Backbone:
C-alpha cells in the first residue's frame, strides 16, 4: 500500500498541472438607449450576471431617460457617444466641445464616464486633443460583427464567437431584436468557453493598462 502511494505521489509530481488561463472580454453597446431593446438586454445581462459598457447618445437619452437611468442603476459602465451621433471626424473644436458637453449633461446623475467612442469609430487630431482636455480615453473595438447590418442573430453570434480572444472589446448595438438576441447568445457561448465578461475599464485594469486621456484603445492585452 505504501509502495502504491509512493508511486502515485511520484507520478503527480512528475506531471505538471496547468491552471486554465483566465480569458476576459468586454461587451460594448453603441447608439442607445433604445426603449424596449435596452430593457430586454438589461434583463438578459442581469440574469447572466454580466456587466457591459454602454456608449450613449445625448439625443437618445432625451428620448429614453428612464432606460439611461436603468443602465446606470444596474451597475453597467456608461461612456459617451456624442449628442447627435454625427461623425466627429470633421467637426471643429467648438462643435466637438458642444457635442461632449451636451451628452455629458444628459447622463444619469453620478455617472463619471472614462471613455468617449466617436460615432463610426472615426476621429481626428482635434478630437483627440479635445478628449485629452476632457479627461476621456477613446474606446474603439477589436471585434465587430456588423450587427446593425444583419438581422440573423445566429450569424452575428458566430461572427463574434469564432474570433473572440482574451482582451477583446466587442462592438454591438441595442437597437434591434436580432442584436439583443445575438448579444445574449454570445454571452452564453463564450462563457461556456471559459470567458469572463467585464466592463471596458475593468478589462483595462485587469490587463494592467492605465487609461490615458486622448489615447485610442482597441483592445486590452
Residues:
Amino acid at each position: 500500500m505504501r509502495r502504491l502511494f509512493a508511486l502515485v505521489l511520484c507520478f503527480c509530481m512528475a506531471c505538471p498541472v496547468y491552471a486554465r488561463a483566465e480569458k476576459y472580454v468586454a461587451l460594448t453597446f453603441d447608439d442607445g438607449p433604445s426603449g424596449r431593446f435596452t430593457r430586454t438586454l438589461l434583463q438578459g445581462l442581469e440574469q447572466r450576471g454580466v456587466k457591459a459598457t454602454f456608449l450613449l447618445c445625448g439625443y437618445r437619452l432625451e428620448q429614453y431617460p428612464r432606460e439611461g437611468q436603468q443602465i446606470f442603476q444596474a451597475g453597467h459602465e456608461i461612456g459617451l457617444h456624442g449628442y447627435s451621433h454625427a461623425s466627429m471626424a470633421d467637426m471643429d473644436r467648438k462643435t466637438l466641445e458642444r457635442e461632449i458637453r451636451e451628452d455629458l449633461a444628459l447622463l444619469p446623475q453620478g455617472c463619471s464616464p472614462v471613455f468617449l467612442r466617436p460615432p463610426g469609430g472615426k476621429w481626428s487630431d482635434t478630437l483627440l486633443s479635445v478628449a485629452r482636455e476632457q479627461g476621456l480615453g477613446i474606446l474603439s473595438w477589436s471585434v465587430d460583427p456588423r450587427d446593425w447590418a444583419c438581422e440573423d442573430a445566429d450569424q452575428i453570434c458566430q461572427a463574434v464567437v469564432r474570433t473572440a480572444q482574451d482582451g477583446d472589446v466587442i462592438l454591438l448595438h441595442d437597437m434591434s431584436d436580432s442584436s439583443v438576441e445575438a448579444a445574449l447568445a454570445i454571452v452564453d457561448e463564450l462563457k461556456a468557453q471559459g470567458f469572463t465578461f467585464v466592463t471596458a475599464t475593468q478589462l483595462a485594469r485587469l490587463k494592467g493598462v492605465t487609461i490615458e486621456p486622448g489615447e485610442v484603445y482597441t483592445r486590452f492585452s
User: Anything to note?
Assistant: The chain is about 45% helix and 15% strand. The CA atoms of residues 29 and 54 lie 5 Å apart.
